[in-house]
Amino acid sequence: MTSAEAEGLAQKFKKARRRFIKTRGKKLSRSLANFLGRQSLVGDTPVLDNANFPFLKSFTDNWQTILAETKEILKHRDDIPTFQEISPDQYRIATGKNWRTYILYGFGLKMEKNCRLAPVTTRLLEQVPNLQTAWFSILSPGYHIPAHRGVTKGILRAHLGLIIPQEAEKCWLRVDDTINVWRPGQIFVFDDTYEHEVYNNTDEERVILLFDFDRPMKFWGRNLNSAFLRAMKLTAFYQEPKRNLETAEARMEAAIRRADKNMESLSDH
Asked: Please, are residues 196 and 147 in contact by the beta-carbon 8 Å criterion?
C-alpha cells in the first residue's frame, strides 16, 4: 500500500468514525431529553419565562452599550467568520456568507482577544451562571436558517435583539409552534432542542447577541448533563471548532491591526 493510499484509508476511517459518533451522540442526547426535562427547575416549554433568570435584566438595561460595541466590531464585518467556518458540521444550516458569528465564548472557552473588543458585553456575560457559549449572530438579508435541533436539553439559549430590520415582523424565529420576533433591547430564552428555524424576509441585516447557559436543574439532571458535556468535549464536534475558533480569533486580531495601521498612516498624511 502506498503512502497516498494509506492516507486515503485513514481519512475514510476518520470520517466514518465521526459519522458514527455524531449519530450515537444525537441518539444519546434525545434519549436523555425526557429525563432532563423532568429535572428542570424552570419548566420544559419551547420558550421560557424571563422571570426565571434575574441576570437577564442587566442585558436589557445595558443593551445600547452592547449595541455600540457591536457596531465597532461590524466595521470589520468581512473578517468575521461564517458559522460553518467555525463549525463545519453546520454546513446544512449555514451557507455562503449569510451567517457570520463573532464569538466571545465557545464551549465554555473565553476568546480573550475577541472579548477585548466588547468589554461591557463580556462583563455582563461573566455574570451569567454556567455560561457555555456567546456570540454576536449576524444574519444577511433574505436568509433562511432551516429547521434544526440543538444538542442537549441541559442548555438554554438567550437572544438579545440589537440591530433589527424595520419590518421586524418579517424577521423571526420559530421554536416548535411559537413565533418569536426580535425587538431592539428585548431578550427571550428558549430551548433549542425543540425544532427551530429562522427567517429574515427583509432586505436588512439582523444582529443579535446569542448566549447559552446551563438549564437550572435538580441534582441528578445537573450531574448527568455535566458528564454529557465533558464527553462531548472529547469529540471532533468540539475539538475542530475549538481549533477553528483560535485561528479565526488570530485572523480577526491581525485584520484589526492592519486597519489601525492604515488609519494611522492616513492621519500622518
From this structure: yes
Sole residue written with cell 439559549:
157
Q: Which three cell numbers stand for residue 141?
A: 438579508
Instruction: Answer for the pair 159, 210: CB distance below 8 angstroms, yes or no.
Output: yes
| Beta-bridge partner residues of 196 | 148, 175
Q: What residues have CB less than 8 Å from 211, skipping those under 6 apart?
A: 105, 125, 128, 131, 132, 133, 134, 135, 157, 158
pLDDT digits (tens, 9 = 90+) for 157-194: 999 999 999 999 999 999 999 999 999 999 999 999 99
In terms of phi and psi (left: phi > 0; alpha: psi -120 to 50; beta: otherwise), the region of 238 is alpha
- Rounded to whole angstroms, how far apart are CA atoms 34 and 95? 32
Which CATH number do you get for residue 160? 2.60.120.330
Predicted TM-score (pTM) of the model is: 0.84
Beta-carbon contacts of 122 under 8 Å, excluding residues fewer than 6 positions away, are 104, 115
The full length of the chain comes to 269
| Three-state secondary structure call for residue 97 | coil
Domain of residue 220 covers 5-268
Residue 49 near residue 42, CB atoms below 8 Å: yes
How far from each other are the two terminal CA atoms of the chain, in whole angstroms?
62
SS3 138: strand
* Average pLDDT per consecutive 10 residues, the chain (269 residues; last block may be shorter): 57 49 56 90 97 98 98 93 84 88 90 94 97 96 95 95 98 97 98 96 98 97 91 73 73 64 50
DSSP string, 102-116: EEEEETTEE-HHHHH
- The predicted-structure confidence for 67-96, as pLDDT tens digits, reads as follows 999 999 999 999 999 988 888 877 788 888
Between CA 181 and CA 218 the distance in angstroms is 31
Number of domains in the chain: 1
